[in-house]
Amino acid sequence: xxxxxxxxxxxxxxxxxxxxxxxxxxxxxxxxxxxxxxxxxxxxxxxxxxxxxxxxxxxxxxxxxxxxxxxxxxxxxxxxxxxxxxxxxxxxxxxxxxxxxxxxxxxxxxxxxxxxxxxxxxxxxxxxxxxxxxxxxxxxxxxxxxxxxxxxxxxxxxxxxxxxxxxxxxxxxxxxxxxxxxxxxxxxxxxxxxxxxxxxxxxxxxxxxxxxxxxxxxxxxxxxxxxxxxxxxxxxxxxxxxxxxxxxxxxxxxxxxxxxxxxxxxxxxxxxxxxxxxxxxxxxxxxxxxxxxxxxxxxxxxxxxxxxxxxxxxxxxxxxxxxxxxxxxxxxxxxxxxxxxxxxxxxxxxxxxxxxxxxxxxxxxxxxxxxxxxxxxxxxxxxxxxxxxxxxxxxxxxxxxxxxxxxxxxxxxxxxxxxxxxxxxxxxxxxxxxxxxxxxxxxxxxxxxxxxxxxxxxxxxxxxxxxxxxxxxxxxxxxxxxxxxxxxxxxxxxxxxxxxxxxxxxxxxxxxxxxxxxxxxxxxxxxxxxxxxxxxxxxxxxxxxxxxxxxxxxxxxxxxxxxxxxxxxxxx
Length: 572
Description:
It is built from 2 helices and 47 strands. The chain has a 20-stranded mixed β-sheet that branches. Strands 1, 2, 3, 4, 5, 6, 7, 21, 22, 23, 24, 25, 26 and 27 form a 14-stranded mixed β-sheet that branches. Strands 34, 35, 36, 37, 38, 39 and 40 form a 7-stranded mixed β-sheet that branches. The chain is globular and about 70 Å long. It starts with 39 loop residues before the first strand and ends with a strand.
């Protein structure tokens, strides 16, 4: 059985920014001036790529054989350049119930730069002063969520949430890029100093060139893209080489808009809101799915299908998409029910939907990997949520080679004993080396077992190493958050309480204390310390500390002022 995940960020469906496969009704019934039941309509959709053959954007297939594909404004891309997890803007034509045909597909990364800090506990990291949130559905290319390191140069696709932080749908390691890029909305424009803010990042535009705009066009709230090559991490300042306006204006011939994101500027009285820069209005015929109009508010994640009535975008359907992962498992497929879209892994039956993402990371490496390519005994990693009836819904399915299982599972444990428990259908073995913790502190095995007395259904995450079909647990973490108070993705990672785990560069050393990202960490003789995987003494560790050295820290906040270090490691 799965339970809601503590974290955050909406999963694949929360990123759905296009019409799903259930939106195949005749779109010519809008104000297209025709009345012909087979008349075609022009659609613009923004969404995350979920698969190929041709291109699937959040579950809906778009024929792409004749599409012009532009990557970062270069009009020379091909379909092979596109990746699962990329957020794209697409223009397409739909005729009746036929598969829509894409004429233009555009992709631009949201951020590109060096990883400065990793908040391991909160699944977040910073690039160019911007907070990047990720989750189990985020696609990592060339790196994984567990191998991502400070200093890595990465490209990020995703979307901006209401708090000015990014949710990453794709994180790709870059080895041959050094250009810094960031998108966002201008704030704090200072024309005298020639600076403005993008989130926590200061942009110095005194030396910038402007594309299809001038410096006089700059204003607070304007959506732009900045490119540069000089970044000062101390002052969080990027020297802009070029600035380009990124607006949401569409051609006059667009009949339908299918987009998802975070609601902003909601005016309940007027029945209007903004989503990804588009102004949308409600009317009496607007339909609501997975919620009702009363649930609409700023910060809520939705998918909108809207029509052009000649004057504005009118919402035909709004789907609330506050989905969270509730479980993660790895194992061989034991049963497939193709008629009902069901697969069974580790005794758990997963229902697949049009929103399920597919990726083949096995030696077969199928680009056009779908449900139909899954066979009994295939090894899968499945990320899932639960519907109201308790059915596990697959959000992401990745086929692996057995040796590539990463040993991470999540869910609600059962059959708990002093030697282990069952989690997400996996037999987990604990031993003297297993570490137990909650959101607040380290705990013992006995304290862990006591947490599950009665009918408690707390969520647990295990990291370990596979021994056949058994998982030998290295780390067991219990989420003490109540379901109703689960994190909605607005955790800024700066609560300064409870247990914490992070990685970053040392900026100051003071005896047996050091500072990383403004966080003071204090070592003691009880701290477990390593350098390059070798245990070392407190003095040897202190001797190795210096500005610029990257340290990974596990510890607990003390009086919201400093972290008492339980474990720390320097890895050259």
